[in-house]
Design brief:
The chain is mainly α and 98 residues long. It has a domain at 35-98: Cyclin-like (Cyclin A, domain 1). Helix content is 69%, strand content 0%. It contains 5 helices and no strands. Helix 3 (34-50) packs antiparallel against helix 4 and helix 4 (55-71) packs across helix 5 (79-94). The N and C termini lie far apart (29 Å). This is Cyclin N-terminal domain-containing protein.
Length: 98
């Protein structure tokens, strides 16, 4: 399941080379709220601090989440899968962890 999500995630990110929509929560996502995005970002920051990830990893991860959510509607049950997938892709793309 995670592989399928990562494959779909990469496919959408490959097609979407622009910045995320500034109002995607209101216009694209019907099941998510701005506060849910806030909780998601707080979790990403905590994980980055806990595992001492480089700052580029966090920036990439936030960008991937926003770009993905701008392009594809998801329900709140899939939000955890999106955040973990974005973190994995961010870690992979930012290079080796020191």
């Amino acid at each position: 399941m995670l592989f399928v999500c990562l494959f779909g995630f990469g496919e959408i990110l490959g097609k979407l080379k622009q910045r995320p929509l500034h109002d995607y929560i209101e216009n694209v996502q019907s099941d998510l709220t701005p506060s849910m995005r806030g909780f998601l970002m707080d979790w990403l920051v905590e994980v980055a601090e806990e595992y001492k990830l480089v700052s580029d990893t966090l920036y990439l991860t936030v960008s991937y989440v926003d770009r993905f959510l701008s392009a594809k509607t998801i329900n709140r049950q899939r939000l955890q899968l999106v955040r973990v997938s974005a973190m994995l892709v961010g870690i992979f793309m930012s290079g080796p962890v020191t």
